[in-house]
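W.,

You were right to be curious about this one. When I first looked at the sequence I had no strong expectations either way, so I just let the prediction run and decided to look at it fresh. Below is the sequence, 114 residues in total, followed by the output.
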Amino acid sequence: MLIVTAEPDEVRLGLELRALSLGYRLGSDALLILLDLAAHASEGSEGMVVAASYRDIGRRLGVSKDTVGRRLALLRRDGIVVELGDDSADRFETRSYRLYLDFAGVTREARMTP
């Protein structure tokens, strides 16, 4: 398992071989977007949830909002990301997503700072 620290001292992401397979199958951009969402998510009563817009994700990763939209569609199709809330919202607005990281072979651990 590969351990990656995202946002120093806050979150550790572990990648199993399934995560690599996901990157090959859906594209490296899709895996990178999932990891970005995981790094910014929080654990709540509904599971692992994150709020983000296509533009915010694209800005953080250096990809276009259109690429984010296409890759999120693939992640949603595979059940790894589930959009919460109203489907009628503008696609560039901030939306909430539930993440099923275990399906993708990604583990997330919040690091405790002393």
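Here's what jumped out at me. The chain has a mean pLDDT of 86. And, maybe more interesting for your project: Strands lie at 2-6, 11-15, 42-44, 47-52, 81-84, 95-99, 106-110.

Coffee later to discuss?

I.
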